[in-house]
Amino acid sequence: MEEYVLLFRLDILTKETQPSPEQMQVYMKQYQDWVGGIAAQNKFVGGTGLSTEGKVVKHPSVVTDGPYVDIKESLAGFISVRASDFEDALRMAKECPILGGVGNSVEVRKVVSVHETKS
Amino acid sequence: MEHGELIPHLFRIEYRKIVSVLSKRFGFDQIEVAEDIASDTFLTATQSWGVGGVPPNPTAWLYHVARNKAKTYLQRSHVYERKIVPAVKDASTDTVETEIDLSPQNINDSQLQMMFAVCHPVIPAEAQVGLSLRILCGFGIEEIADAFITNKDTINKRLLRAKEKLREEKIKIELPDAAELEGRMAPVLTTIYLLFNEGYYSVSQNSTLRKELCLEAMRLCTMLVENKVTNTPAANALLSLMCFHTSRFDARLTESGELILYEDQDTSLWNTEWIGKGGYFLSCSARGNKLSKYHLEAGIAYWHTQKNSTKEKWENILQLYNQLLQIEYSPVAALNRTYALSRANGKRQAIVEAEKLQLTGNHFYFTLLGELYTDIDQPKAKLHYEQALSLAKTPADKQAIQKKLDALQGPI
Fold first, then answer.
1. Is residue B20 within 8 Å of B111, Cβ to Cβ?
2. What distance in Å separates the CA atoms of residue A31 and residue A77, rounded to the nearest whole number?
3. How far apart are CA B313 and CA B306, in angstroms?
């Protein structure tokens, strides 16, 4: 098994297009059912959701309000999964419910090295 | 209580207390001496009560005898010769500290501390469960062998090796420091959880023994939540989970000890008192910022105590399984999650998800697929049930699957 990171990008900034709390609940269920399905195959490694606030530091040290100002699709979160190969990771990504939204994307990246963590 | 059943009854309750107090007093390396003195005390009781009748306060009598035997041991032992005698000579006093404190407080503290010694991660989980049954629950070797479906020799060897290892590692009978507590609680909770599962899911046909294992697991967990150091949210969640499960104990087995599936149980046999206790400890577990697997399993167990099969019930169970699997994968949880998915989101979605699991060596997997395909594709349902039947090992499992096959083929 290899490890892959699935990065979720969506527009979390344009006020008019943000989901209502009721819609949000539906999306969360779809998302949890999707992650639960990956975990049920023993392929879930970990995940992190990100808040909508952020700052970006640019060369040489210019700080701007983020998460990222130049593109509409911000990083909204990511999960790590175990997959037999790239195809397998892609299959999982294609079923991600955020893809129901126009302009949203899931980027699939293979993990080649992990930073040592102090134990 | 008749004399004949009084001694086994007292043995079950008092043996473990005497062993814990004496081991605590002597040190873990002398645990076998403590066990011998406790056994010897009961032997003396059997002989003496058989002749002179049962004393008015049998427990006090046992403590008195155990205390005297322990004192004699302390005075005579090599430990006394090597360590205490020189000290006594130097101090030029002739009193030796041989007091044995069998007060309720010291009994309780010693048992709790013993729990941490016995559930030490240096020995394998099954040895922790075995030692717990012997030292913390006062089970006989034969009963332990029966619970593990093995023989006395195997259990004796396993316990000896485990004690040897704990001695080598110089494990002390004490509560861990605050800094270590969380890490050391984990194996203690795991052992209690395994002990409970051994009783709840065991294939042993001895249903009295099985229920006793469950009650013992709950007793140990209760000791944890009654002590303010060990009264953690996860311990409360585990206790809650066990109470919820126990509420169905009488509904889930036939008189001959066969399993009755959840959907077929007589819900009037579900014990509301246990359900109430489970609810109480579940609310006690809702503090801190850590969601343990016990919290999630207690939540799942709570929803299973709800008799009505509502959309809300299965949606909640599904979400709890989704979270549980992210914390800790197990094939059973994966299968149960897929069943909950079928109840919450429908069979067609569940079939797609089930086929990704590929647990093809597991008869429950094919039973689930058979269940999901029923009323959608009968020939496929039949094929899956047949596959399950060929993989099932115990007669009880085979019988349950055969029933489903018959129902499938029967007149509609």
1. yes
2. 12
3. 8
